[in-house]
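Q: Here's a chain of 117 amino acids. Please give me its 3D structure as tokens.
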Amino acid sequence: MLPKIPVNVKFAMGWRIKYDRSMKPTSEFMSQFQRAYLSSVAKILREGTMTLEQLQGVSREFLAVLPFYSYGDLEKKVRDFSQKFPQFIHLDLKLVEMLDEEKKKILMNRLQDQIHS
């Protein structure tokens, strides 16, 4: 059974998971995102929605938006990229899912710090 969290910790932490959008994404997070991007490219090639030449051009455009300086910057650039290239909309959705997981990790770390202090 999980320990009961004191009310003051609940309000101090906030149940809405917050993270600093100006934080630089971790290398682990970026590795996961790169794998998601490459998975998207492979899926598009398998489905035949773009040719190899088109994907090379799209990849050049994607590389042009690098680096990502913060989570907010990453969200904005990927959203703009997926609007320009609708075949990559699932990459934007994957990023939202990944950011949600990252927020959960941050919340869990904060809770652990509060419990252990």
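Q: Can you summarize the key feature?
A: The longest helix spans residues 89-116.
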